[in-house]
Design brief:
This protein has 186 residues and is an all-alpha fold. The protein has seven helices and no strands. The chain has helices spanning 5-22, 32-40, 45-53, 63-90, 97-125, 129-151, 160-184. The longest helix has 29 residues, at 97-125. It is elongated and about 50 Å long. The termini are far apart. The relative contact order is 0.13. Mean pLDDT is 85; it is low at 1-30. Residues 30-179 form the Pectinesterase inhibitor domain.
């Protein structure tokens, strides 16, 4: 009776091996030491760790790869924010023409942030770290133009949703700049 179980165990072992190699899990252990060491030297450690650990590519990445992952997180944030703002242009919530004008300007500014971060990815691939820093700094600054547009019109309040998105992008960019600084000194 025991000899009949061995073929089943072998098939199970082969199945599990194939399953784990062809369908990796979404949570990545990664190189915990490099991720933790890197993130501890950034302004927003928790954001850095959670973002990097959520990307499967982090397990095999060096500092440049970790920076690229964080830039891609920033691209996603800026793109989503631009789309959110664009959706406000077509919403039927009774928004004023002036508010829609400001939303349009903000959508454009966040699209510029996306373009700057995409340039940063190119800069990283070419190891042009100075240009990468310039593009990240620019991306972090574009939301200021949006906030300032709201300030120009005293009757318009700066939406909390937008404030949260602005802070998110700025924090992501600060993490990228922290990683870039580490690249300079390695």
């Amino acid at each position: 009776m025991g000899s009949h179980n061995f073929p089943n165990l072998s098939l199970l072992a082969i199945f599990l091996f194939l399953l784990t190699t062809t369908h990796p899990t979404k949570f990545v252990l990664g190189d915990d030491d490099l991720i933790l060491k890197t993130c501890k030297n950034t302004q927003y450690t928790d954001l850095c760790v959670s973002s990097l650990k959520s990307d499967p590519a982090s397990s095999d990445s060096d500092l440049k790869g970790l920076a690229t992952i964080m830039v891609n997180v920033g691209i996603a944030n800026a793109t989503e924010t631009s789309s959110y703002l664009s959706s406000k242009l077509t919403s039927s919530t009774g928004d004023t023409t002036l508010l829609k004008k400001v939303f349009r300007l903000c959508a454009v500014k966040y699209s510029y942030a996306t373009a700057s971060l995409k340039s940063c990815v190119r800069d990283l691939s070419q190891e042009n770290y100075d240009y990468a820093s310039v593009h990240v700094t620019a991306a972090a600054d574009y939301p200021n133009a949006c906030r300032n547009a709201f300030k120009r019109y005293p009757g318009l309040g700066y939406p909390n949703e937008l404030k949260g998105r602005e802070d998110g992008l700025k924090h992501i960019c600060a993490v990228v700049l922290g990683i870039l600084e580490q690249i300079y000194f390695t």
